[in-house]
Amino acid sequence: MDGFEAFLRKLKFMIIKELRTTIKDPRTRTILFLPVIMQTLLFGYGATFNLDEVQYACLDQSRSAYSTELIAKLEGSGVFQRAQTLNSTNEISQAIDSDAAMLVINIPPDFADKLAAGENAEVQVITDGRNSSTSGIAAGYVNSIVAEYNAMRNGGSILEMETISWYNPNLITRWMFLPALMPMMALSQVLMLAGLSVAREREQGTFDQLLVTPISPSIILIGKAIPPILIGLGQATFALLIICFWFNIKVMGSLFTLYLLLFVFLLSCVGIGLSISAVSANMQQVMVYCFMTMMPMSLLSGATTPVRNMPELLQYFTLVNPLRFATEAVRRIVLEGSSIGTIAYAFVPMLIIAAITLPTAGWFFRNKL
Amino acid sequence: MRGKEMLEAVGYIDGDLIKRGEMRNLRAQWKRWTAIAASICLLVGGALIYHGSMPQYATEILSVSDTDIGIRMWFNDANTSTWYFIPGLIVLVITISGVFLTSMVMAKEWERGTLEALFVTPVKVLEILLSKMIPYFCVAMVGFSLCVAASQLLFDVPMHGSFIIILLCTMLYLFVALGVGLMISSITKNQFLASQMALVLSMMPTMMLSGFLFDLRSVPLVVKMVGYALPPTYYMQLLKTLFLAGNNWLSIFKNCTILVLYAIFFISMAFRVTQKRVE
Questions:
Q1: CA angle, A257 as apex, A255 and A261 as ends, to 5°?
Q2: What is the tens place of the pLDDT at every residue in A9-58?
């Protein structure tokens, strides 16, 4: 027991020393916590696929009661704001090119005649494809409004599709995005913290000093792994507080499950960070490697773009991405209220990655100086 | 819902259902519109990224009556999401390589003490800064060429604008990014802090607030202001227009002027904070 007690004591001192080195500089304290708050707020408001306002231009060549009715329905929805009224088809290109309008509606001259004759009349919708997601959504809105218009003219439809989205009934993008932002932010900070701490010690020469102390390499490893995890959990707590109390997103699942998942996720991130620092010669290299790891991890995580839409090959790549599993699991805990059993599958890859990277980093510490 | 299933459902309709259908008109219009809009959004959102395509199913079922819509998405007719993403990715790569790489150089020299050694030589501040900028400029241009080659060969993104203009705009934006990196580096004088600041000031804002994923038109005013205060936003607009639309001189002129002003600002700031004085 004495050996184990001594182990724990040495570990405790190592962790305290690491935390002190990181937090003693007030600028570091600020940079570790202020951006978390700012980013959560900014991205919470900025991340929206919902369109509240569409600037559109209207070219009504029909000038009939039918076309006026259709345009009134469009503007009456509250989403479409008329930016320009065009008089000829030549003016369409300047409206879109100059970014004055996102969408141009071109009603042909024979619109009313065709409708009155009982034929199908076509309305042309031109969208700005430079931002294809919002253009697609805006076109979808026009689609639905025209469908309403059709239904109104034809006296109601027989078959209706009423869709209810579980867990996010109003399809608010923020609800989907903010729980995914938590692990992503924690990842970027923890990866850099873990990687840079070892590289900094190596550059300053204090790592060699550590190795001649009676501390065993495993204590060094665990002592370097735990502080970034603690700081990462602190940052995630900050983000969670903002999400719950500022954005009013209720966490349906248990906090214990959430923190357990975040702990395992950060463990795997720290493992990756320490392995990166083990193979780098200086801090600049660590940074570049971290960036090289962070970018694919963030983009392929399913935070902003669904994993199932990705090409097959990339979907297999995401199986080694701990952020992908963390994002999915955090979303399920926050929005769906999953218990540990439901998200247990997410722990497996993260634990495997931690189990591979941490001993590798430990081996490097001992042998590669 | 496929056409076959709809026909099957139609077979289950009797007089009762029709009567109930007529009575449904009395319900508030907005509920139906919201439901249909939400279902359309669900369809569009699900098929959005990577092989995104217009919801053909919804169009076919809902326009069983008179007014059809012919939708033309200018500059990106097939709604290929890669066309929309790749210019954004180029902005991201240039920003990050420009800012990340340079943000640690000055700080590393401060920490090592080699910068003080430089101060006793007759080299001027201009020469120090230029010597830091030029290598990373070349590195970032190599990265840019790789990105453009990939976009042409792998992803078939059209390049309707002239390549020379894209190149010149990239060089201009690279000056901005390098200026930001050097400024961060000289102010913090500490590699650890510089790297954290670079991360916070370059990667996350470029990914979220510059129009890469989320359109700046639909965000609240405060976020919109922050987004328009960032240089990557303008470079993003430039690249998207140049790649997908062609040489739109008004847009090029406007965005380039703003980028020139930013470049002057950041590089002069980098000059001001790099002084031949031992702190």
A1: 115
A2: 999 999 999 999 888 888 888 888 888 888 888 888 887 777 778 888 99
Helix %, strand %, coil % of chain A (to 5): 70, 5, 20
Distance from CA of A130 to the nearest CA of B (A): 6
Is residue A20 classed exposed, middle or buried when 0-12, 13-18 and 19+ CB atoms within 10 A define those classes? exposed
Structure tokens at A151: 């239904």
* pLDDT for A128 beyond 90: no
Report, in angstroms and rounded to the nearest whole number, the Rg of chain B calculated over CA atoms: 26
pLDDT for B77 beyond 80: no
Helix and strand totals (H; E) in chain B: 14, 1
Q: Is the CB of residue B73 less than 8 Å away from at least one CB of chain A?
A: yes
pTM, two decimals, is 0.76
Write the burial class of residue A234 (CB in 10 Å: 0-12 exposed, 13-18 middle, 19+ buried).
middle
Residues B218-222 have a mean pLDDT of 83
The SS3 of residue A289 is helix
Distance of alpha carbon A121 from alpha carbon A146, whole angstroms: 12
Evaluate whether ipTM surpasses 0.90.
Answer: no
**List of chain A residues whose C-beta atoms are within 8 Å of the C-beta of residue B248:** 97
Rounded (10°) CA dihedral B148, A297, A15, A361: -80
CB contacts under 8 A, A 7-66 vs B, are: 25, 27-28, 31-32, 35, 39, 42-43, 45-53, 55
Q: Taking a C-beta distance cutoff of 8 angstroms, is the pair B166, B243 a contact? A: yes
Phi-psi region of B246 (alpha: psi -120 to 50; beta: other; left: phi over 0): left
| pLDDT tens-digit readout, A296-330 | 898 888 887 888 888 888 888 889 899 999 999 99
* Distance (Å) from the alpha carbon of A368 to chain B's nearest alpha carbon: 23
Q: How far apart are CA B96 and CA B235, in angstroms?
A: 13
What is the enclosing helix (H) or strand (E) of A142?
helix A132-153
Q: Which amino acid would we find at residue B189? A: K
- With an 8 Å Cβ cutoff, are B38 and A50 in contact? no
Pair type for strands A80-85 and A54-60: parallel
- Cα distance between residue A347 and residue A230, in whole Å: 19
Q: Does B39 touch chain A (CB under 8 A)?
A: yes
Cβ–Cβ below 8 Å for A284 and B74: no
Identify the residue among B5, B8, B36 best suited for mutation to test binding to A, counting A beta carbons within 10 A and taking the highest.
B36
Q: Is A200–B204 a contact, with Cβ atoms under 8 angstroms apart?
A: no
pLDDT reported for residue A16 = 93
Instruction: Write the pLDDT tens digit of every residue in A154-194.
Output: 776 556 667 777 788 777 778 888 899 999 989 988 998 89
User: What span, in angstroms and rounded, lies between the C-alpha atoms of A203 and A226?
Assistant: 21
Which of B44, B71, B241 lies nearest to residue A137, judging by beta carbons? B44
Q: Which residues of B touch A132 (CB under 8 A)?
A: 52, 73, 76, 79-81, 83-84
Question: What residues of chain B lie within 8 A of the CB of A39, using their CB?
Answer: 200, 204, 208
- Tokens 């990667």: give the residue: B203
Confidence check: pLDDT of B37 > 70: no
